[in-house]
Amino acid sequence: MSRRVPMPPHLLEAFTAEMSAAREPGPTAERWRAAERAHILSQPWPWPHTRTHWAMLRLALRDHDLHEALGQLVRLVVAAPGSAAGKYPDGNTGRTRAGLTTPMPIPDDLATLLREAGVALRP
Predict the structure, then answer these.
(1) Which three-class secondary structure state does DSSP give residue 92?
(2) H or E element: which one contains 108?
(3) pTM of the model
(4) Helix or strand holding residue 6 (H, E)
(5) pLDDT digits (tens, 9 = 90+) for 96-116
(6) Number of C-beta neighbours around residue 24 at 10 A
(7) Fewest CB within 10 A of the end CB: N or C in the chain?
(8) Which tens digit of pLDDT belongs to each residue from 58-81?
(9) How far is Cα 30 from Cα 42, in angstroms, rounded to an integer?
(10) CA separation (Å) from 113 to 32, 96, 106?
């Protein structure tokens, strides 16, 4: 699937909901969980993927987490090119502790949305 096509509406709706939850006031752990889920959904699309790392950088700065913030700066640089080239680790949560190239299990609900969008998930 070419990533030049926009994110399908059903996936965009889920992505937008997760990004909104990541920005809402509330417990830090819940905000990070939403950002991680948004990241998984956004990986195949350069602009949404980059937006997710921007949101993660803002969360890291809010939390005064220098290690995470530095990791997000690196990810901001590589997110769009990686998505455009199809070189991203499926299921990776986007956090610094996850490792830049480490594939991770995809939650079932997100995997279903991605498959419905025509994204071929790697085993």
Answers:
(1) coil
(2) helix 108-116
(3) 0.93
(4) none
(5) 999 889 999 999 999 999 999
(6) 10
(7) C
(8) 999 999 999 999 999 999 999 999
(9) 18
(10) 20, 25, 11
